[in-house]
Design goal:
It is built from six helices and six strands. By secondary structure, it is an alpha+beta fold. It is globular.
Length: 155
Amino acid sequence: MKLSILASALSTATAFAPSSSTRAASALANVPLANGSMSFNRVCREWRCKYDGNKSDSASLEAIAKVVDECLPAIKSASSDITVNRLVCGGCLDFKLMMTLPLDDFGPWEEKGFEPEAEFLEKIKAIEGVSLVETQTITNMEVSSLNKEMHTLSL
């Protein structure tokens, strides 16, 4: 069973959404990775782009921040346990918005098109100075809690 879960998890983004028959069990168990040396039970959807100008006074970064503020209530409605992180790199001019939520909540959010992803992406694409707008689905686990989770997984 562990191998089938792992194979499903690695094949596509939709694999992060457990089927209805495994949904109850996934809240208690993590999906193993790397021959059991890692696992996950939280999935992250990342929206990213490049902005222009200096991070301290960039008009495009300021406009992105306004779009984040507009969309944040809808983003947070995806899960009662969602974590939203904003990452800005002044050196390479990256902007990233990362929404991490429990595996059980990811599938329903994905089925809804990661609302409000389409709206958010459309709005930032219209901002002068924004380029390379992309999305990615990845696992995102806090490392400090993993030792305890790996111990639970091996029991």
